[in-house]
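Recall from the previous lesson that a structure prediction takes nothing but the amino acid sequence as input. Here we apply that procedure to Type II toxin-antitoxin system HicB family antitoxin from Halohasta litorea. The sequence below is the only information supplied.
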Amino acid sequence: MTGTRKITLIEEVEGGWSAVDEDLGVASCGNTREEALEMLDEAVALHQGEGEPIEDAFLEELGLDPDDIDDKPLPDFMQ
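The prediction returns the following tokens.
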């Protein structure tokens, strides 16, 4: 990706920070600005097909059944 991208940092009222890549429509959060940006970097990499896929163990840790997760691509209007 070339050129510029707009990243918005939002300080949440109840604590923590959100970071949003406005051009890609990808967001993440963290306890600090730095953590939010690091998490956003990881989310953008995954969004662009880079990095490690989400492991079943992580989904189970969140209380999700990996077999219930739909691996189909999102419709165009949701991307």
